[in-house]
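Dear U.,

For the methods section draft, I wanted the exact inputs and outputs in one place so we can describe them consistently. I've listed the two proteins in the order they'll appear in the manuscript figures. Please don't edit the token lines directly; just add comments below if something needs changing.

First protein:
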Amino acid sequence: MKKTFVILAILLGLVLVFFPYDIFDEFSLFGYTIEINRYKDFATFIGGILGTGFAGIAVILIYKTYVLQSQELKATKGLLNEQKFEQKFFQMLGIQNDIRNGIKYVDAGKTYLGIDFFIYMNEGLKTSYETMTEFRDNPEELKHENNTFHSKFKQFKSLSSEKDYTLAVYLAEFELTHYVLGHYFRHLYHILKFIDKQFRVELSKASKQNKHIVFEKYKNYADIVQAQLSSSELAVLFYNGLAFTKMKALIHKFKFLDNLATEDLIKAEHTEFYSTCEIFGEKYKTCNFQSRSRLVYV
């Protein structure tokens, strides 16, 4: 039905355009004589107006087509950029998991692989902290230790704040395992940096009302990374952030340690190390740490 109507409309248009109107010249109808020449000037006038009008409408339609194509091109470009970002993001995430799974560390004849290494590392931090604290409180016990241990203790003894003392304990452990942890944390940092870079680009183009939407979008990517990490990995990352300010800034920004249980830390009081702060001119809120029992019900 619709197709028939279109065909009839086209045929009617052709008839109106090519109809030989001259046959009606001097034609009398009810006492009125039609003179074609009388209407030529009027027809020319009407034709000029209609021609100009249709030309204007054509320009408007061409402009609207251009605008629509530009918007579609922009949307397509944005979609391609997002696909490119996600492709690289998941590629980096896969490499991070390969790095973690490929970890091999040997201590006292025992081999620790992958996640087991971080369990070993986290327990080692707690043991070293307790040992050093015991000798700090009871210096006379040092006489039973070797010279290497004695010199290490001297370094810790000169540190007055709890944060510096804890950091020194971590760095002492990191020195022994840097060839494992260094590669792991460098790549993890570059994943978060990659997310942050794309976040900043999109944030600069977003309206004030949509800025929180952009943040949540890229926080979700950071959450995907965090979901790949075990509790022991998050605990070691907690102390690694104290040593590397750039990593600490990204941890704060994306609330990367929010699911870390306080029981996994050396001391629950160490959550204060990630309180409200300012890093590189940006202000960050306190990270949300909770006990394992409370996390179960979140």
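Second protein (the one for the lower panel):
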Amino acid sequence: MGSWSVRGRTIRGPARVLDLLALGLRLLTSKDCVSAELCRTGAPDTHAMVATEHRLQPYQILVSDDDKTCRETVRDVLASQGYRTHLASCGREAIQVARRQFLHVVIVDMNMPDLSGLETVTIIRREVSVAVPSILMSADPSRELMRQALSAHFDSFMPKPLDVGSLRHVVEEIIRRHYEGEL
């Protein structure tokens, strides 16, 4: 695992070249940045890099659930905390959103009509962003499903119906762990 230097700070982990270019452009055009320097010392982790720009815009969170009420409830809870949410009603739509928008966290329902939440996040991580933190929701919180989520490296598992306080806490903890402590 390599590292990158962004504005004099070291970032570690894997990343895609397009993610680096996008971040470099954002840094170069931001009002808070007089100059930006990206110095390659290895392979960067763009999720850590985006922590530098979190002060410029809200964290971006994808919520994917075929249940419109649940999707909109999660959106409202997160928006009240200052997060920017992107909604998807199925796995394929979630993947399309992930291709267009840098995401800090992905929240998916396990049982969607086209792809499961596990399949959706696996594809997003393979094709778009290797290290995106993810939360799996399910109305069927079986031990087997929790084991699968753990094996697939989900950051958290949340049973439905969702507890709003727990949702806020889990998202805040993931943001803190993945972004605020990195730089």
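Candidate sentences for the figure legend, describing the second protein: The radius of gyration is 16 Å. The first helix runs from residue 17 to 29.

Thanks,
Y.
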